[in-house]
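Lab meeting notes turned into a lecture example. A postdoc, R.K., suggested we walk through two folding results consecutively so the class can see how the record format repeats. The first protein's sequence and structure tokens come next.
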Amino acid sequence: MAEQHQQRTREHPRYRYVGPAEIRARERDAPPGVALRQLSDLQRWLAARAPGPGRAGSAVVTVTFVVTPDGVLRIADRRSEHVACAGGGEVLAAGELEISARAPLEITGASNQSTGYCPEPRCWHALAPALDRLGIPHPGGFTFACEFRRCPACGERNLVKDGWLECALCGADLPKRWNFASATSPPAPTSAP
């Protein structure tokens, strides 16, 4: 079983951090997200959160998540940067999870919304096995799937909305396909703004 898991994680693309260098530097000393290896890890993490909107005591808690290259799901408070949650490293998936915090625990929403890693929607295939290992019910796919593109003219990261392939910063046309270099391939050249 462990061998099958290692084979599957090798098949997933790895995403390197593509966000602002100043965020990476600021988060360098932040602790990584909590590793969830079993459901009790999530239960303990939820119990330790202070009550408040989107926190323990609320019906739904939204968290930042990453799946590390070894297939481990890590979570942190929603206001955490994905690069900090990942300990600065590469990821197989990144985004946000909405957890129904009342028994029984359940993932009610999931997205790949991470402008630090800009992962493709297909990163769900790395998240699903991590959730399955916890034994927590989930929606079976992203409830909000983001499409990201890097502008070839100015280098800005863009969240594509409604299929609109135009850079929000400079107005240049965006490519039809995802164009951030995977951590396992050389970085894509970008021109200076």
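The second example is placed directly after the first for contrast:
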Amino acid sequence: MRELFSDAELNGPKPYNPHVCGTKGTESKSQAESMQQIIYQTENFVKTTLHTDSTGHDFYHAFRVRDGALNIAKTEPGDKVVIELAALLHDISDYKFNGGDERKGGRVARAFLTDAGLDEYRVDRVVEVVNTVSFRGAHAESSHLVSEAKIVQDADRLDALGAIGIARCFAFGGHRGHPIYDPMVPVKMHSSFEEYKNHEGTSVNHFYEKLLLLKMRMNTPTGQAMAEKRHHFMQQFLDRFHTEWKGLV
């Protein structure tokens, strides 16, 4: 259970200052406790909603992204309350599992946070993050990201790299019925989001179509440094995979 937020983290950003994680303020203890209660409610909502997922997009993924985002936020500008809530809710209704509705996650997040009593500014900010952090394809145009979205996106992408990223890739591929690998199926570098989200390839191809591209698309210095290490581990795995595929070891 996390400690209560500091006054600086909890002070409402109106007007928003993009150079600090919150501004100096005089939040009362009761206000801090109220905000912490919204965090707890969000954790429970995410856990209840995603507890049956077996694709690598379960509540543990959301919690890891939250923890990673808060770690990155130690050295990056942004409202930490928005960052934590958006990270927890970023996959609350993923288009890959809801029939292709790219905006449903934002609508679900808005309804939940409004009902929980979060202020309108932060609700809008969380929804914007939820709606813009997804990968859109190798050559697809990227969305303009607010500061909190850059942090959450980096944390989400880090969870697609390294040992956990490898495990999640094959979990998702198995769920979708994708072959592990087929050397006759070419890698596809998608030029649009529509092309990317409708493509059916192999799990190993997904490394080349998305995962190995992420290192160069991180938004923050902390994210870039962490991605470098995870990318290297993933590349070592692929080198070994292809060697074993050929029966050489």
